[in-house]
Amino acid sequence: MTDISQRELGVTQQGHYAGAVSRLVAFCCDQAIATICFSIATASLTYIIVVITPDNYKLQLPPTLVTCLYLFWLFIYYSYPWSTSGKTAGMAILGLRVVQRDGSQTTLRCGVLRTLMFPLGFITFGLGFIGIITNREHQALYDRIAKTTVVYDWDARGARLRFLARNAAPSSPDYLESQAIDSPNEPA
Amino acid sequence: MTDEDVPGTPPDEGDDDWGVDAALGAATRAARAATDVASAVGGSAPARLAAAVAKRLTVPLAKEGHEVRERLVTDAGPVARDAIQRVTPGVIDAVNINEVLAAIDMDALLDRIDIDRLVGRVDVGVIVSKVDVNELVQGVDVDGIVSRVDVAAVVERVDVDSLISKVNLDALLERIDIGLLLDRIDLNLLLTKIDLNELLKNVDLNALLENVDLDALLDGVDMNSLVNKLDIDSLVRNTEIGSLIAQSTSGIAGEALDVVRSQGVGLDNFLSRWANRVLRRDPIALPVGPPLLIELAPLALPSGQSDSEKAQS
Question: Among A53, A177, B46, B89, which lies 20 to 30 A Cα-Cα from B73?
């Protein structure tokens, strides 16, 4: 399948169940973002404490506390977006959204329950994620418990128009003329 | 020339009756003389006396004359017929028919004829019944007659106004099958002959549009159906809209996102196909998305094609 045909296929699937690859990439993005944000936050906090305390003071946070804080941060990071907009930052990048099984918007209960059940996928040594591939509705274990699912939600129509416009723009005389006006010194 | 050829000459075979003829002639003369005398004398007494005496004296003569007259009546027919037969050829030869006809005043003759009475005595029905009309018509050279007719002159003599004024147009129009008439009309050919530009010049579009209820018109339009029928792809490709979109959204980040998302969707589908193949599932029978989103999806999809149609294709 060529690159163009993949794009054509992709932009026509808005509202369809999202597949494993997109969700995995989105999760990785989310984890990276959440971890980076947490690291920046803890580093900043440590720096501020060091600055405002005497020189002989050493801030040593217990690892358990840091882990708890990290988990709490992850809980906030995932549960709040899933309860409101249905999409985290990583999911927004990949154009995914969490919805209820019938397609309606998620509620606070759905968001919180899904966040709490999310670790089951890891606890079951990845078996909890198998449902994303094998289930008819691409539901993981935590999705089945929270009665949610993940769909493609990116602006497929706008993306398609942008895709068509980018392909058509070089042949449009008006576009070429506008480009020439924008960059008059650029050699032909 | 013989005596037989001379008219009035007695024939030789009548020599035996000469006495009778003489007596007849004498009696005839006597009677003529008596008549003359009687007419001259009149009805006087002496005349009547003389007539009685003469009648008494001529009784033998009268008796003989009576017998002669009767014989003439019985014998004169054949004799006269024979005489006519002998004379007629000569008479006919002697008569010039042309001179006779020329001498006749035909006008006077026709004036004396009562044409109406003559025609009234003619039984036209019997005459017509004996006429074979078909044979008569076949014998008529219609083409020749028509070729001799000056149609233009005939038409010029026709008073069209008077003719049309006598036509009952309502009755005529009732007999016309408009549907059949329209079926026989080649509207395309008719429209090609119409100068629409000239026609539209005479149309006051402003007045026409003022009478149009645009709200009612738009209420009857299914805008969703109309928009779905639009070929947005072609619109974007072939108009300045494409350039405007490209200029406004051609950022590198946006393009990168589209690429990443498209790649992700492609890999997802690839993985799903393999999973369905391993699990022996029919992809068409699988739900493609949540019911609420799939029902709304056709409005957002660019192709306007339903998901079931996509799955089948």
Answer: B89
